[in-house]
Amino acid sequence: MRNVIVTDVPRAEIEKVDKLAEYGVATVHEALGRTGFLGPQLRPVHLGSRIGGTAVTVLSWPGDNLMIHAAVEQCRPGDVLVVTTTSPSTDGMFGELFATALQVRGVRGLVTEAGVRDVAELHEMRFPVWSRAVSAQGTVKATAGAVNVPITIGGQLVKPGDAILADDDGVVVVPRQDVDRAVEASQARVEKEEKTRAAFRDGELGLDRYGLRAKLAELGVQYVTAEEYGL
After folding, report:
1. What is the pTM (predicted TM-score) of this model?
2. Is 124 helix (H, G, I), strand (E, B) or coil?
3. Tens digit of pLDDT for each residue in 72-121?
4. Which of 31, 78, 122, 206 is geometrically suited to a Cys-Cys bond with 186, CB 3.0 to 4.6 A?
């Protein structure tokens, strides 16, 4: 690993990222062919937040938050800090003091594959966090890592400047060059779902709307009466 802090990285256009955030994580994930989801292990520390921003990435050693301190300087308004470690860690690498420093710089939230603490304070500050763990166990500041380099979380590649969307359903990354396509695909999915929603309100069944009766028959599923089944 190269121990570097990359400065002045190109970022996705924040207005388009804001538009993506309106659609929500699940819709964007589905619209892009079920790609970019960072996995169910990343959960919101408190419910009710929906954010979109541009990634500032951090690669740290487990139990060490030195590079988060270095990353704060690289953050701009509209960014989301995205942190992973070189091997699995659940230590509380981030808390209220970091959140204070990031809020002043206009950072919209934190996504971390490690742990956080000061949950009550983060909630009171309304600073959104998605993490793998909550832990009072603290960290040291002793080992070099990297800032604004490509990292991997949940099998997904996150590059600095990519769009990061997060809500109660989890976190999704959209590559910077794919943001325009993601907006178009998400809008098309929303329009399609609205038609389906209207049909369901009118009493139509998913079995009929999606043509699933034929699929059931193809799979050998049979309709039988309760008497035939022996109930």
Report:
1. 0.94
2. helix
3. 999 999 999 999 999 999 999 999 999 999 999 999 999 999 999 999 99
4. 31
210: left (phi over 0), alpha (psi -120 to 50) or beta: alpha
Which residues does 28 contact at the CB level (< 8 Å), separation at least 6?
A: 20, 36, 165, 172, 174, 182, 186
Which pair of structure tokens corresponds to residue 129? Answer: 């966090």
Task: State whether the Cα torsion 37-163-181-49 is positive or negative.
Answer: positive
* Three-state SS at 67: helix
Of 75, 90, 95, 84, give the one whose Cα is nearest residue 146: 84
DSSP E strand stretches across 24-64: 43-44, 51-60
Distances 13 to 63, 77, 136, 185 between C-alpha atoms, Å: 34, 12, 36, 17
How many residues does this entry show for the chain?
Answer: 231
Contacts of 86 (CB under 8 A, 6+ apart): 1, 59, 60, 61, 62, 145
How many CB atoms within 10 Å of residue 14? Answer: 17
